[in-house]
């Protein structure tokens, strides 16, 4: 893409918007005028870039980063107050569901997975695939016919919440799980997919971070690793051992950075859990849910070079995007991660594709940018976002089933518009 900067909606936050005075620490939000000179400077460091509005690039900076910009002679404007004024509307009061409204806490995820398992003993099995740093369970829900046995079927992974503040990324895989189970008996297509595949859903990979984001600091992104230097957190989606830390653009070696990659590859227990699951299973495709940007990304993220299966990945993304648009009219752009958004190294999709050669997608859920809400999705938007993501997930599962049955194939099944309409209707009936 020509101007990558426009799409750097980034790691980030328009953050620190106070809320908890102490949490603000002394970070500030500043803007710099976009120019070839400023872009050149910003590109050389892993700043927490929030986005671009009307020719100004907004950045969330620590005092040391601010000093760095000053020493480089880059003019900036402090914009922190602008965001503080609005902070109330960023934190809507919820009538129900506790502090995080209808979004799930760790406990609520656990309860919901137990409920789904109990109500569907032949189709759903909850398992603990690992433990977080703070000893919370990392849960997976396996969905398949004869769920207790390990059948020779295509396996697919849907995973949410590598990043704590991306609350919507918990809800989408959780609602997909619920949909599959609730519609199994009356929807032939769902039945076929569930019968012929083993779908693994990990809705919450970063429970420590999520809890911290709910109860202490809404913009928390990483896990809660004590880095031993009074900073906390490793970016879980930069910790996987594939091209880990190949440069300091796609991740950072600085502990306080929001994209800190960790001391060593696979150092975090949450990532080890995913890796172990891969070693035990035979995954054929995966979707990793994130927010925000409304975009479907595929490998490579660490380089602008094309992946060997670039055509397949592109075609699958394109068809998923088509299916998504057909639901609510919302357009998800798509492309190779490094081109479409920003360079990343050590993320799950590069790892899964690099090590296992399977189609692996990051779906950045809505909204499209931080001026449209960033990490905040309205409560009433959870369901539409789930509904538009449903046919895309089913489509990928179908691809996995087909390619598993026929032997690995680079063929892409056509989009089934009729089916898509059908699914939406069902989803509405459910509510
Ligand atoms: Zn993310």
Give an overview in words.
The protein is an alpha/beta fold. It folds into 2 domains: 4-87, 2-Layer Sandwich (Alpha-Beta Plaits), CATH 3.30.70; 105-430, Aminopeptidase (3-Layer(aba) Sandwich), CATH 3.40.630.10. The chain is 37% helix and 16% strand. The strands form 2 sheets. It has an 8-stranded mixed beta sheet, sandwiched between helices. A 4-stranded antiparallel beta sheet has the order 2-3-1-4. Strand 10 (295-298), helix 11 (310-328) and strand 11 form a beta-alpha-beta unit. Helix 6 (106-119) packs parallel to helix 7 (168-183) and helix 14 packs across helix 15. It is globular. It binds zinc ion. The site of zinc ion has 5 residues, from loops. Zinc ion binds at residues 162-163, 166, 237, 290.
């Amino acid at each position: 893409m020509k101007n990558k900067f426009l799409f750097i909606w980034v790691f980030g936050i328009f953050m620190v918007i106070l809320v908890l005075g102490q949490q603000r620490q002394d970070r500030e939000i500043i803007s710099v005028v976009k120019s070839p000179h400023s872009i050149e400077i910003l590109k050389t460091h892993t700043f927490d870039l929030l986005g671009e509005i009307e020719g100004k690039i907004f950045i969330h900076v620590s005092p040391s980063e601010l000093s760095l910009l000053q020493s480089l002679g880059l003019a900036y404007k402090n914009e922190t107050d602008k965001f503080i004024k609005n902070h109330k509307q960023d934190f809507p009061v919820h009538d129900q569901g506790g502090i995080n409204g209808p979004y799930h806490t760790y406990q609520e995820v656990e309860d919901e997975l137990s409920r789904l398992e109990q109500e569907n003993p032949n189709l759903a099995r909850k398992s603990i695939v690992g433990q977080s740093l703070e000893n919370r369970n990392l849960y997976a829900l396996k969905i398949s016919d004869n769920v207790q046995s390990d059948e020779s079927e295509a396996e697919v992974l849907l995973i949410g919440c590598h990043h704590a503040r991306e609350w919507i990324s918990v809800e989408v895989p959780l609602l997909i799980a619920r949909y599959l189970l609730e519609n199994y008996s009356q929807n032939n297509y769902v039945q076929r997919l569930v019968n012929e595949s083993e779908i693994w859903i990990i809705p919450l990979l970063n429970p420590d971070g999520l809890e911290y984001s709910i109860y202490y600091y809404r913009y928390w992104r990483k896990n809660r690793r004590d880095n031993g230097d009074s900073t906390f957190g490793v970016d879980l989606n930069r910790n996987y051992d594939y091209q880990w830390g190949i440069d300091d653009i796609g991740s950072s070696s600085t502990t306080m950075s929001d994209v800190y990659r960790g001391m060593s590859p696979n150092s975090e227990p949450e990532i080890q859990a995913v890796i172990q699951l891969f070693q035990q299973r035979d995954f054929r495709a995966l979707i990793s849910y994130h927010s925000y940007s409304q975009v479907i990304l595929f490998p490579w993220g660490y380089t602008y070079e094309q992946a060997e299966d670039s055509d397949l990945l592109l075609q699958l993304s394109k068809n998923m995007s088509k299916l998504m648009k057909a639901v609510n009219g919302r357009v998800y752009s798509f492309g190779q991660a490094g081109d479409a958004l920003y360079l990343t190294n050590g993320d799950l999709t590069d790892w899964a594709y690099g090590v296992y050669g399977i189609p692996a997608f990051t779906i950045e859920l809505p909204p499209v940018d931080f001026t449209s809400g960033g990490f905040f999705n309205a409560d009433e938007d959870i369901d539409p976002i789930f509904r538009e993501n449903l046919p895309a997930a089913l489509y990928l599962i179908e691809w996995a089933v087909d390619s598993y049955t026929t032997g690995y194939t680079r063929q892409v099944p056509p989009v089934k518009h009729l089916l898509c309409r059908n699914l939406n209707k069902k989803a509405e009936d459910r509510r």
